[in-house]
Recover the amino acids of this structure.
């Protein structure tokens, strides 16, 4: 008698004790699916220029912030404009574009097919969202040239740490965007969440102005946002002085992102389970 | 008379648009929180630069811009008639199309004014600013004038961009950044080259924000009135441009047979 095990949304094949190769098949399956999802998303994005729209608009904020600090006679703060530009571009790609993937799947009725397939939906979703978020790192290049044009070149002293922070931040943004995606699908109006989320997160995350300048009452809240850690770390890479505790701070960015990801996974997992149980997947 | 009827009916459509995005609760605790935190982020640049003069400069400029740039929602909104497939009917109807365009987008004008009116007290409290009585009294009027001109500006963009709907959000984003940068909201106009300053004279908010700063610094009523009239003139110019753009776009669409191709 074959025992029917409930398949989790992150496992590829049902695990059987008799199957010695179970775990390696599991890992191989996830890798193959991730690669397929990345390829599919790449092909979809190439045909859908709307995905890239934040890359055209958000970096322009660097013009404003660079002009403000330059007009105030503080060329040393140019780099702040650059950091804000990258993080806001990436944030917009994560929350606006990647956060929309789940809702888009449901709207286009791809969701049912993906759920019915043996693939692990959450792994596919995460892979596709991470590619879209990673596009946001182009904001670094765009911001660099815009700031150089308005104010003058930005001197980065620790390129390695900057790039490492950017990679970890992209991962954390992707995981946090899962929460936004879940939230968008659970409400009545999907757009509302997208339009709300960016303001408070950028302020509390100290994207443009360090969170240490916020009132001391709010600071514990901003410590809980991975964004405040990555913004501080990225600003430190602009100074010649050696950076303290890089691994710890990178770990903080990653851990807080993973925390967000856990919330997102549980939320989406429960939502899918409810849709399946009620038979309302395509409603 | 029928234009007015169409305008009123389209206003109701606009209200329904607004309700797709917001209800009173999400508007107050979502939209307003987002917009004031965004403003707070920019005004805090003054704290970073440790200059109370600059903080006040950013504060005065952005408290007008918060409301005025919110009217840029009219840019994507100008496309929604095409999205719903109503556009060919509007072209065929004997009533001027401008009436229905104005009607459907008017809600975002009101939305911007209300946003600005509520954001000022919040920002004043948050940054511990002390505003004089004339500033408080003049604010609603100046804000309304700036919202009107920015709304007219968005209509002109929206009328054109409706033909290239993929770019409607880009257009409103670029327009918003350009307004914040060049009209003296956040960056002192003297920072920019002479040519940009000349162009800024024809952009919305330039004169309105200058008038608001004049009131805060206690300049003469005459110069303030003059600047507000300038601002209104800019608004009328953009409204006429919007009308012209719509007429030209519809004319070309009819010639080329593109009316139902959105």
């Amino acid at each position: 008698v074959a025992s029917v095990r409930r398949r989790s949304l992150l496992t590829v094949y049902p695990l059987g004790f008799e199957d010695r190769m179970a775990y390696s098949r599991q890992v191989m399956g996830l890798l193959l699916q991730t690669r397929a999802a990345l390829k599919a998303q790449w092909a979809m994005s190439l045909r859908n220029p709307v995905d890239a729209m934040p890359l055209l608009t958000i970096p322009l904020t660097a013009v404003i912030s660079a002009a403000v600090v330059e007009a105030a006679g503080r060329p040393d703060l140019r780099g702040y404009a650059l950091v804000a530009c990258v993080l806001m571009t990436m944030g917009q790609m994560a929350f606006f574009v990647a956060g929309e993937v789940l809702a888009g799947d449901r709207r286009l009725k791809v969701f049912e097919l993906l759920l019915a397939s043996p693939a692990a939906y959450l792994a596919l979703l995460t892979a596709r969202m991470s590619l879209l978020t990673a596009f946001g790192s182009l904001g670094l290049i765009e911001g660099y040239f815009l700031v150089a044009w308005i104010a003058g070149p930005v001197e980065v002293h620790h390129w390695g740490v900057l790039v490492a922070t950017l990679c970890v931040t992209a991962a954390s943004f992707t995981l946090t965007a899962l929460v936004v995606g879940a939230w968008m699908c659970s409400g009545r109006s999907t757009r509302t969440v997208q339009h709300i989320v960016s303001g408070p997160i950028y302020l509390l995350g100290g994207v443009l102005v360090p969170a240490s300048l916020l009132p001391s009452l709010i600071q514990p809240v901003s410590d809980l946002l991975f964004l405040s850690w990555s913004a501080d770390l990225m600003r430190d890479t602009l100074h010649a002085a050696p950076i303290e505790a890089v691994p710890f701070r990178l770990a903080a960015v990653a851990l807080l992102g993973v925390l967000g990801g856990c919330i997102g996974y549980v939320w989406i997992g429960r939502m899918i389970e409810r849709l399946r149980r009620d038979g309302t997947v395509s409603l | 008379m029928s234009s007015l009827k169409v305008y009123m009916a389209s206003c109701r459509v606009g209200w329904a648009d607004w309700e797709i995005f917001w209800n009173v609760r999400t508007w107050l605790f979502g939209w307003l929180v987002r917009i004031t935190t965004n403003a707070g982020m920019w005004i805090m640049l003054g704290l970073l630069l440790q200059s109370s003069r600059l903080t006040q400069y950013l504060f005065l400029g952005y408290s007008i811009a918060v409301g005025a740039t919110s009217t840029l929602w009219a840019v994507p909104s100008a496309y929604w008639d095409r999205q719903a497939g109503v556009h060919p009917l509007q072209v065929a109807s004997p009533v001027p199309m401008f009436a229905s365009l104005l009607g459907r987008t008017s809600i975002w004008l009101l939305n911007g004014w209300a946003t600005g009116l509520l954001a000022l007290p919040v920002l004043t409290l948050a940054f511990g600013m002390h505003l004089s009585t004339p500033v408080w009294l003049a604010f609603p009027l100046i804000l309304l004038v700036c919202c009107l001109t920015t709304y007219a500006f968005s209509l002109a963009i929206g009328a054109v961009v409706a033909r290239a709907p993929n770019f409607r959000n880009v257009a409103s984003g670029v327009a918003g950044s350009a307004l914040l940068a060049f009209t003296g909201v956040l960056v002192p106009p003297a920072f920019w080259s002479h040519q940009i300053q000349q162009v800024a004279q024809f952009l919305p908010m330039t004169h309105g924000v200058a008038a608001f700063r004049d009131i805060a610094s206690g300049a003469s009523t005459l110069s303030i009135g003059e600047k507000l009239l300038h601002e209104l003139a800019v608004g009328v110019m953009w409204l006429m441009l919007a009308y012209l753009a719509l007429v030209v776009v519809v004319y070309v669409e009819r010639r080329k047979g593109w009316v139902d191709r959105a």
Summary: Chain A has 13 helices and no strands. The two ends of chain A are 35 Å apart (CA to CA). The CA atoms of residues 96 and 202 of chain A lie 14 Å apart. Confidence is low (pLDDT under 50) at residues 1-5 of chain A.
